[in-house]
Structures are given as C-alpha cells and as structure tokens.
C-alpha cells in the first residue's frame, strides 16, 4: 500500500513536470501543444548527447553532473520550444483552431521522426544511472535517486509557481491569459511573453526528459508521445491552465495509475489513464481546481 | 480549351488568372468523380503485377478511410486524432466474427456497421459538447485504448492478432474491383452527404458553431451524426482491410496511421471530396515510389503538415463553395 502510494507520487511528479508546460501554453494562448511531449523526448536525447560529450562519470559524481547536464538541456529544449512557436505557431495565431492543431501534430511528427533519423530507431541506453541505496520508509522501498529526482522536480515546480505568482513576468503571463488584446494595449509585448512561456514550459519538459533518462535508463524517439498524452491528462484532471491544479493533477494521475496497475495489471495501465481522462472531461471538464468557464471560444 | 458542360445554376467566384479559372472549372466539374473512377478501373489494364495490385487495393482502402475522416474533420471541423480506432473496430469485429463463427466476410458487414456506429456514439456522446481541442486529445486517447485493448484481449488474439480471415474472393483483380466499387460508392455517398441538408449544417458548425446554434441547428446532434458517419466509413474500410490482408494485428492501428489519414485529408483539402481522394492516393502511393527516402518519410510528412497549414491551409484541391462570395 505504502509502496503503491510512493510509486504513484514518484511517477506523478514526472507527469506534473511535463504537464506544467502543457498547462502554461494552454493557459496563455489556448493552444494544445501536441509537440510538448516530444520536447521531453528531445530533452532526454540532448541530455544523452551532452553526457556522451562529457565522458565517463564516476558514480559518486553522478548527481552533480546530472544536474549540470539538466541545466544545459533545459536551455536547449527551451530554445527549441521558442523556435517551434516562432516558426509553426505564431504565423497561425489568427487562423482557425483546426489549422493550429494540425500544425502542432505536424510539429510533433517532425520532432519524433527527425530524432529518429538523427539518433536511430533503436533505444539508447543512458550512460549515467543514479546508483541508489534503498531505504525502508513506512513499509515502502524508497531509493535515494527517487528522492533526489522528486526534490528536483518539486524545486522546479515551486520556482515556476513563484515566477508566475510573484514576478512582473508572471503577471504579464496571467494578463495575457485573461485577455491578450487588452494586455497588448496595456503595454505588454505579447509575442515576447508567449516566447518566454514556451521557453519555460519546454525547459521543464526537457528537465523531466533528462530525469526520466537517468531513472529508467532507456530512451527512444517515441517516448514523448505517451508521456505527452499522460501529461495532458494530468493537466485536465487538475484544471488546465491552472498551475497548482496541474501539479495536483499529475500526482493524482500517478496515484490512479499506480493503484490501477495493482488492481488491473500493468497492461491495462494506459487504458485506465485514458479512461479517467474521458470520464473527467465528461463529468468535470474544468478539472479539480479549475474554475467553471461559461464562455465559448 | 473546351470547357465541359456547365452545371446549371452554379455560380463560381470570378477571380484568378484565366488558366486558374479553367483549372478550377475542371476541378469543380461533376465529371471529376467519373474520371477518377475510370482511372481506377483502367489501372489494372496498365499494370497488373501482384505487387501493383496490392498497392492499388491499399490505396483504394486508404481513399475510403480518408473520405470517412473528411466527413468528421473536413465537413464538420472536428479534429479526430484516433480515426484508425474505427478502422480497427471494423477490422476486428469482422475478423473475430468470421473466424469464430465461420461466417463469410460479407455477412459480418451489418454487425460491423452497428458496432462502429456504437463506438462512434460511445466516444462522441460524452465528448462532443467539449471544445474541439479536447475532442482531439480524447480521440487520441481513444485510439490508444482500442489498440491496447486489442493487444491485451484474448478474443482479439493479443499481440499476434487474428489470422486466417477469409477473403472475399481468391482473385486479387476481382478483389481490387470489389474494393474500387465499394470505395467509389463510399466516396460518392460522403460527397452527397456533404451537399445534403445535414452536410450544410456540418459546414455551418465548422465555420461558426455559435451562429449555427443560434440559427436553430442542433449542433450536438449534427456533430454526433458526422461522428457516427465517419465511424461507419472507417469500420467498412476495416472490413476491406481484413479481407485484403487476411491477418490483422494491433500494430496496424497505431497513431501513425491516424496521422497519415489526417495528412491525406489536410493535404488534399479539408471538405473537398475530390481533393481528399487525390490526397489519399498521393499519401499511400508516394511512399512506394520513394522507397529510398523511407527513413525521412515521416519526418517529411510532419514538415509537410506544417508547411501546408502555413502556406496553403485549404489544401491542394480546396473545396469551392457553391454559395457565391466566400
């Protein structure tokens, strides 16, 4: 039982980290960035490449090196997100939603199969594993690496939340989410803020990618597809566009999956997750912490 | 050039170069469908190797899929990213019935229609009230659910799928002609649906849902109708697929396939029946021609989706509205 909860919280924190990017982008420009999961994949591969360039890492240095790599990766995926927005999404900002969604699907495809041609179709093995000794906490086996990853994830989320709620930049983002046109009239550079939002969301996805690579040990070019779906599910469960809600949603989805796997078996885990998504959208489309929206866009 | 007989009462937008207008008139012409059918019928007389026939049959089935998705995405503006789920439901229903109950394949068709329509209702009814992008991601999840379910159930044969599905005929040429006939009917049917009263309601919903609602269109019911029609088209294409390959497995129904069908619809021109047929033929035949580029294929598809949306959002062969002044 304690093990199930712990596993759920651990996976959930990954989901939450990826879901934040979804949620931020959705909140600010009402776009489902289908390519978001693939930025996570890009992060995992960038981390892989950087680690390969660094060379052999002694097990004792694994965590600090990994954190350094994570920072580099966040910069790379963040910039990729900015480029993606600039090239594929910005020109279509006034276009029908359908066009924008289809572009996003195209971007997702281009990233996945671009990576396939660049890195090959076979899974790659991460050079650095966080060797951890396991501890016994309340009957659950907890490894040090899990704790380290959760701490990093939580730190990133707290940082993001502070940024959005306490800074000028965050205020600009919230203003645009409410009303882009009026924000522009009030002197906010809407394009710049959207770019920065993409940077932040994509950087978080990249960080999650590196963490997943170091934890699971294997990466492949399609790894972003499923996690993208899961992240979106998390965002919906918590309330898309709402940052604390998204974090909560990630944890809830992680827990649901953990228990679902226990009850139904691992092969039904994803079916269970998407079933929950459909159920949630039917019953409470605005999520646990979302406000009821009456306007139709 | 000798323009074919002009359809009475058809007013067309007067703009563009004379050549452009002539091309437009040609594209608009009601004989375009007959010409396409003639090409499909004559193709085996040009090349009839088993390989060519199988490619052509697959292309025809793909045309059917695309014309089904065109009802949902093109006519009604609902983005479905899990469209092959219905294809899978059709293929599996038909395959399971045919192999377990020893039914001939054609006898499973009524069941397939009912089951796929039900599948359309099951996924459409709870989600069609939602915003379109939620629908997109729910359908994506639905596609995965169907694939994983087929992968895990015993009756569907698990990962190895179902094999030994009886074909409709032993001759590949005859089967090709059966397929062409069914697909032609399906395309014509979809096209006529698109021009019917219901089809006009679909377009209205696509253009402006709130206005449609205000004008008395029951948008929810209309969207559900589009969804069910698309599901049935996909399911029937699945039966043809099962008959063609005689063995189906979950690997044939991935998100990749859904994305390719969407690609065909977008490339050809959403809402335009001839355009979608051309788009589907291009998407299904091009990879056979460009075998050398196999590794770049899907990357190019992705880039192409973006480029088409940026430069030519209406597709290669756009729908021309009969109502003037669009």
Automatic annotation (TrEMBL), chain A:
InterPro entries named among the record's database cross-references: ABC_transp_permease, BCAA_transport_permease
A Pfam family matched in the record: BPD_transp_2
Example GO molecular function: L-valine transmembrane transporter activity
Protein keywords: Amino-acid transport, Cell inner membrane, Cell membrane, Membrane, Transmembrane, Transmembrane helix, Transport
Transmembrane segments: 6-27, 39-57, 63-84, 96-115, 144-164, 193-215, 221-240, 247-265, 271-290
Domain of life: Bacteria
GO cellular-component term (any): plasma membrane
Keyword Oxidoreductase: no
Subcellular location: Cell membrane
Keyword Cell inner membrane applies: yes
Membrane topology listed for this record: Multi-pass membrane protein
GO process annotations (BP): D-alanine transmembrane transport; L-alanine transport; L-isoleucine import across plasma membrane
Record family assignment: Belongs to the binding-protein-dependent transport system permease family. LivHM subfamily.
Protein name: Branched-chain amino acid transport system permease protein
Phylogenetic placement of the source organism: Bacteria, Bacillati, Actinomycetota, Actinomycetes, Streptosporangiales
UniProtKB/TrEMBL annotation, chain B:
UniProt-annotated location(s): Cell membrane
A single cellular component GO annotation: plasma membrane
Transmembrane feature ranges: 31-53, 60-85, 105-127, 173-193, 224-247, 259-286, 298-317
Gene Ontology MF, one: branched-chain amino acid transmembrane transporter activity
Bilayer topology term: Multi-pass membrane protein
InterPro entries: ABC_transp_permease, LivM-like
CDD domains: TM_PBP1_LivM_like
This protein's UniProt keywords: Cell membrane, Membrane, Transmembrane, Transmembrane helix
Name listed for the protein in its UniProt record: Branched-chain amino acid transport system permease protein
Taxonomic source organism: Sphaerisporangium siamense
Organism ancestry: Bacteria, Bacillati, Actinomycetota, Actinomycetes, Streptosporangiales
């Amino acid at each position: 039982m304690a093990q199930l909860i712990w596993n759920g919280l651990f996976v959930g924190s990954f989901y939450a980290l990826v879901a934040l990017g979804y949620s931020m982008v959705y909140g600010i420009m009402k776009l489902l960035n289908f390519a978001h999961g693939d930025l996570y994949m890009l992060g995992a591969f960038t981390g892989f490449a950087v680690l390969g360039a660094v060379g052999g890492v002694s097990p004792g240095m694994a965590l600090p090196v990994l954190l350094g790599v994570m920072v580099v990766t966040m910069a790379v995926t963040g910039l990729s997100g900015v480029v993606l927005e600039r090239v594929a999404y910005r020109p279509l900002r006034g276009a029908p939603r359908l066009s924008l969604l289809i572009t996003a699907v195209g971007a997702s495809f281009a990233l996945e199969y671009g990576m396939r041609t660049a890195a090959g179709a076979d899974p790659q093995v991460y050079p650095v594993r966080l060797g951890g000794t396991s501890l016994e906490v309340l009957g659950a086996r907890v490894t040090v690496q899990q704790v380290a990853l959760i701490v990093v994830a939580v730190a990133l989320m707290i940082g993001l939340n502070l940024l959005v709620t306490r800074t000028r930049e965050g205020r600009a983002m919230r203003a645009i989410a409410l009303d882009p046109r009026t924000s522009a009239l009030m002197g906010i550079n809407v394009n710049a803020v959207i770019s920065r939002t993409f940077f932040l969301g994509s950087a978080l996805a990249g960080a999650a990618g590196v963490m997943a690579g170091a934890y699971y040990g294997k990466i492949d070019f399609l790894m972003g597809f499923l996690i993208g779906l899961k992240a979106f599910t998390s965002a919906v469960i918590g309330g898309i566009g709402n940052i604390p809600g998204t974090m909560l949603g990630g944890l809830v989805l992680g827990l649901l999956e953990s228990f679902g796997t226990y009850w139904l078996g691992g092969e039904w885990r994803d079916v269970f997750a998407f079933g929950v998504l459909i159920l949630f959208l039917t019953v409470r489309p605005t999520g646990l912490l979302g406000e009821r929206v009456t306007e139709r866009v | 050039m000798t323009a074919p007989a002009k359809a009475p009462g058809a007013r067309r937008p007067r703009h563009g170069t004379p050549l452009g207008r002539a091309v437009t008139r040609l594209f608009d012409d009601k004989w375009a469908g007959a010409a396409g059918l003639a090409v499909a019928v004559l193709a085996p007389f040009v090349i009839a190797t088993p390989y060519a026939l199988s490619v052509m049959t697959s292309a025809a089935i793909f045309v059917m899929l695309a014309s089904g998705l065109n009802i949902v995405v093109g006519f009604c503006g609902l983005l479905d990213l899990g469209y092959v789920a219905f294809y899978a439901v059709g293929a599996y229903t038909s395959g399971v019935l045919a192999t377990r109950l020893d039914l001939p394949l054609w006898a499973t068709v009524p069941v397939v229609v009912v089951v796929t329509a039900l599948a359309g209702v099951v996924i459409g009814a709870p989600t069609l009230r939602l915003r379109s992008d939620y629908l997109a991601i729910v359908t994506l999840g639905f596609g995965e659910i169907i694939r994983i379910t087929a992968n895990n159930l015993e009756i569907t044969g698990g990962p190895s799928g179902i094999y030994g599905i009886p074909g409709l005929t032993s001759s590949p040429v005859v089967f090709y002609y059966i397929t062409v006939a069914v697909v032609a009917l399906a395309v014509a049917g979809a096209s006529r649906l698109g021009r019917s009263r219901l089809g006009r309601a679909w377009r209205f919903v696509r253009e402006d849902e709130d206005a449609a609602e205000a004008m008395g269109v029951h948008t929810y019911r209309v969207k559900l109708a589009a969804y069910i029609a698309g599901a049935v088209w996909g399911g029937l294409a699945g039966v043809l697929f099962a008959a063609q390959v005689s063995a189906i497995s979950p690997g044939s129904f991935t998100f990749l396939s859904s994305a390719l069908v969407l690609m065909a619809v977008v490339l050809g021109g959403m809402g335009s029946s001839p355009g979608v047929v051309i788009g589907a033929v291009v998407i299904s035949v091009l990879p056979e021609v460009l075998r050398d580029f196999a590794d770049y294929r899907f990357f190019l598809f992705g880039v192409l989706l973006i480029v088409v949306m940026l430069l030519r959002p209406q597709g290669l062969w756009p729908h021309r509205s009969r109502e003037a002044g669009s």
